[in-house]
Amino acid sequence: MSNLETVREIYEAFGKGDVPTILSRLAEDVEWEQWEDNFAQQYDVPYLRHKKGVQAVVEFFHEVGKLGIKEFKVLSVMEGAGQIAAEIEIETANFRDEEIHLWTFNEDGKVSRFRHYVDTAKHIAAAGKIKSSTAA
Question: Which residues are within 8 A (CB) of 120 and not within 5 positions of it... i.e. 6 or more apart?
């Protein structure tokens, strides 16, 4: 299976709430939201916390489940050099955002790293960490 097919399968599984399928595509030592200096992590936005390892990523899906996702659209997917970037539109009970998801793959075709590129201020405000007029 190509990296592109894997990402498409992951998004399809996400739409169905099929977390075990998603987890099966991750490397055991996957780095999830690993950043040097990320304001969402400094403000402790629960679903943007750094995770290491498949079992730790389970908490990410638990936190995302609390968002009340109303709409989730994959607008486009781009591939290159062991990475896939996906342009996403998401609407939850508390915000609407346009995001980029960056998937990095190891030589075995497993996801070795995943990062969200988001409007950090919206996510911090939606998590109740600060007040902002940008949160819906």
Answer: 38, 39, 40
**Structural domain count of the chain:** 1
CATH number, domain of 48, equals 3.10.450.50
**The predicted structure's pLDDT at residue 41:** 93
Q: Above 60 in pLDDT, residue 95?
A: yes
Is 104 among the domain residues? yes
Q: How many CB atoms lie within 10 A of CB 44?
A: 11
In a domain, residue 26? The reply is yes
Q: What percent of the chain has pLDDT over 90?
A: 88
Burial group, residue 20, by CB count within 10 angstroms (0-12, 13-18, 19+): exposed
For tokens 């607008």, name the residue.
Answer: 75
Q: Answer yes or no: is 22 within a domain.
A: yes
In a domain, 132, yes or no: no
For strand 51-52 and strand 26-32, is the pairing parallel, antiparallel, or unpaired?
antiparallel
Summarised one tens digit per residue, pLDDT across range 33-64 is 998 889 999 999 999 999 999 999 999 999 99
Range of the domain at 31: 3-126
